[in-house]
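User: Hi! I'm working on a homework problem where we have to compare a predicted structure to a textbook description. Could you give me the structure for the chain below?
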Amino acid sequence: MRELNTQLSRWLLGGSIYLTGWYYEGPALQAAQMGAISMLLMAGFFSVLSGDTLRVRPSLVEWLFSTAFLFAMLVAWATGNLLSTMYGAMLLLVLTAIALVVRHNRASELAAVFRWAYVALLATLLLVEPQALFASLAGNVEYGQGLIRYQPLGMHPNLSGLVYGGGALLFFQRYLAVHTRPRQLFALAMAGLCLCVLLAASARAGMLALCITGLTGVTLIAWRGSRRARMGLVLAALAGLALVLFKWADIKDYLSLILDVDSPTRGVDSGATGRADLWQAGIELVFSDGALMFTGRGIRSALPDIIGFPVESSYINLALEHGLFFGSLIALAFIVTAGRALRHGLQPGPARHQVFMAGLMLVFILAQSIFNRYLIGVGNPYSLWILVLVLQLNLPAASTARAASRYSPALAGLKGEPT
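Assistant: Happy to help. Predicted structure tokens:
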């Protein structure tokens, strides 16, 4: 029964991740989101039912998140915002379920569950929307509309940049972890397909976040990396430079098209007024009320249909929903966790690149969060993965060395992986 309950927990978690990749508008979206949350809660239940949950005290980050969610729920309840109160309660339940799942003594398999869910999503895209994907990837421009941006399974192109850009990092982590050629090729193929979706969606924020992530990794490896890592970096740089020099004209033309730089609304002549104006309006709203500036307005209380405009930044969104105090602490928790993972990932030792890649995944969502509001979220695959990852990376050391080794992020994803 233990093995059965463990497998049920993994399948339910995988199903939940898969459902969060569907974004077709209407009742189907609501059903998918509610189904994903239900399956996630059940995954936590069966994880406990397996009897293999290790007793590890709550981490500081878990205390912070739970306190922030509870406080936001109480604020929403006090102001009569029933919907926000329900969202706060839901996040508390989800946080509890994830905290239970990451304490299972086979929590190293969670990375594999997320990767398999991504494989299922990518396979679905190729099965259901191949023409739309390849047309947008080629740079489909229609008169009167401009560049047609791909929306995988109804997902907004900006969110696609987060989900599939992060997916590419997840598969590249897998590529670094395995040593057999077929598994490496499979991981690289999945990473490449994720990048194709990113390009087809013309998700410029996602591309910029990946560039920031790559620049962060390159800088740290050049500064503190091992001799072997530096040599690999030099070889990769030389290969990339040769490719750019050989195909510069084609690369320039394609990037100009896919980045939509000549668009009057998205191009370089638009003055970058769209998001800048929204950010200014969001900041003004944060400071418009002294009490709400501290308490926040409650989870999901900064939606466009409530405040009148979209908040295109996780950091402004955190300030609006959780207040400056808890919002700053939540953002700081992600930043500190990323810094710790990158620092430990550069230390000598087996499989340290896994920890380093975990840190870069956090850098990616932190950079993306400047332009989007999905830093704290469970409604898309990558935000859900990041929440799992942050809780894993912050678990206190277990009472025995054997249990502690199971929690080591350096070992995450090394067991029970897909071939």
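For your comparison, note the following. The chain has a mean pLDDT of 86. The first helix runs from residue 2 to 19. Good luck with the assignment!
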